[in-house]
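Shape matters. As here.
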Amino acid sequence: MSHSKPAGLSNLFTYKTLVHAVAGATGSVVAMATFYPLDTVRSRLQLEEKRESKNTVEVIKDLVNDEGFFTLYRGMVPVLQSLCCSNFVYFYTFHGLKSMRTKPAQQNAGRDLMLAALAGIVNVCVTTPLWVVNTRLKMKGIGAKSGSHGETEVPFNGLIDGLKYIARTEGVLALWKGTMPSLLLVTNPSLQFMAYESIKRRLMAGKKVGAELGSLTVFFAGAAAKALATIATYPLQIVQAKLRHGHTYPNLRKNANMFELIVYIIKIHGVEGLFKGMEAKILQTISTAALMFVAYEKIAAFVFRILLMQKSK
């Protein structure tokens, strides 16, 4: 009697799935490294209550004048490390589930949305501790004049040190601060991947098997998909950042939950307070996502060509 694994499960552990994961992780690192200063602007506007919500160029000028050019790249290494791990998990899970559950002819926007959401949940559960640590590292050493929380009290310099320190001093569960909005924010990459895969399928319709989209086409497809997802979920990103880093509101308890933060922000700043820094976030996410998809598609296509050449020998 045969005891071979079910076809669906075997599809989860393939070179094809691994290639997608490595290409996605590499593409995300290349893209984030390229546009990292925009992410710095986004973080500072979200976390610093006293910082005026100017346009992105003006905030960059202020940061460079006040703190030096290096501040635009503060905390970049742990962010890239976390992003690499996060996107590897996400792409591997998404494409693994996709290969298990559907054939190419059966793929549609609804299935893409469901699989992207499942991949996002797995990603959040696995990588939230990394993002808790690097959110704090990004604000380390900025100085009390910025009005941010506890930046001079961060006694660690890297991801591993940070994970150990927070677990030891605040408890293991502290590493999963912001998990609730993160789980709700699964809608962001889910919407992004659903939109991107839908756009890609339409553009590929009628093309021969093995055909590739041009880099510019992929760039704009990725940008459009990410813009939709970012605008729809930005208020949750504000709350997520404050839960991970710690808020500075004097009349709100230290361990306020997601809903308390939302109500407080609206009470003090109005609804527009939930969209502070969105311009920088949209510029950063659209640019980063678009470049990430270009790098991902090209890396994956290159590796698949090499594997096909090796197989044909």
